[in-house]
Amino acid sequence: MKGKEKRAKEAGDVLRELGYRLTPQRMLILAAVQASDSHISAEEIYSQVRAQYPHVNISTVYRTLDLLKGLSLVTETDLGEGRVRYHYADKGHHHHLICERCGAIIDVDENLFLPLKRTLLKDYQFNADIRHFAIFGRCTKCPR
Amino acid sequence: MKGKEKRAKEAGDVLRELGYRLTPQRMLILAAVQASDSHISAEEIYSQVRAQYPHVNISTVYRTLDLLKGLSLVTETDLGEGRVRYHYADKGHHHHLICERCGAIIDVDENLFLPLKRTLLKDYQFNADIRHFAIFGRCTKCPR
DNA sequence: GTTGCGCCTGCAAGCTATTGCAACAACCTC
DNA sequence: GAGGTTGTTGCAATAGCTTGCAGGCGCAAC
């Protein structure tokens, strides 16, 4: 069994173990997110899945992504393109700085947010789910 | 001149000084955001404005809010309701912690983010626009 | 292998928000 | 005040995403 298939199977098992049904749609959607090396959009997932299973509906893609998100198997990020992108959670958490002027996207390590997370827990009794943040602003290379 | 009208006029002047035209639509939309004591949605702004100026179009509301956002006159927040809310910028910046379980919304002072903002500027040469953040997670009162 | 429960899916309708285009009107100039 | 320029607006079409509902199908029990 190749690595990619093994990962997909394992993630599928998670679903089954939690009492969710393992449908072909769910397996294909999960595999598409895992196979993507970068951030993938719902529409891209949809067309990949439909290539193998023509009857899927886009709403199933969204509902499944929502489920996987809730199970922390995928994370969701709004990079400001007017559409949300998804990312397989095991590939490591990171955050994005997005320059509103030049559109540059800078990746940031998740550790940068640990102090904030600690403060929120200590002072506000709030367990923040900081996994895939997008912060807008200006990179200093851009004028004004 | 009463305080509210004075504020609206001043904000309108900002538009004109920057070379934007001061249309009745823009003045009414700006006034609606300023008059709102809390966060107001585009649809609410739309119906308020339409009461005085029946011909406005919802797309004008969105376009104007986008403009005002770019000029830092209003800030935009996604509180996870499936619609974005707007807030007059002069009323002070703050952030929100949103519990995904019970839906509670906790307000957080903006100062909490200053260390992060400093780090991003120093280590990543990025001037983050941290004005109205929404952080999802769980309040510790909620089980599991 | 068969059966049945109830979770999941496809479909269609609906919601929020965006965009292209032609017509309009705010503002400047004279 | 009249006229021209061009930034704005209204309209309609469209995109991305969500939701209600009826029927389908995964899974466990036998």
What is the secondary structure topology, with strand pairs?
The structure is a homodimer of 144-residue chains.
Chain A: H1 3-17, H2 24-35, E1 40-41, H3 42-52, H4 58-70, E2 74-78, E3 84-88, E4 94-99, E5 105-109, H5 114-124, E6 126-128, E7 134-139
Helix pairs in contact in A: 1-2, 2-3, 2-4, 3-4
Chain B binds a DNA duplex (30 and 30 nucleotides) through residues 16, 19-23, 25-26, 41-43, 55-60, 62-64, 66, 82-84.
How would you describe the overall organization of this protein?
Chain A is α+β, with helices and mostly antiparallel strands and 144 residues long. The longest helix of chain A has 15 residues, at 3-17. The first copy, chain A, folds into 2 domains: 3-89, Arc Repressor Mutant, subunit A (Orthogonal Bundle); 94-137, Dna Ligase, domain 1 (2-Layer Sandwich), CATH 3.30.1490. In chain A, strands 1-3-2 form a 3-stranded antiparallel sheet. A 3-stranded mixed sheet of chain A has the order 5-4-7, with no helix packed on it. Chain A contains 5 helices and 7 strands. Chain A starts with a helix and ends in a 5-residue tail after the last strand. Chain B binds a DNA duplex (30 and 30 nucleotides) through helix 4.
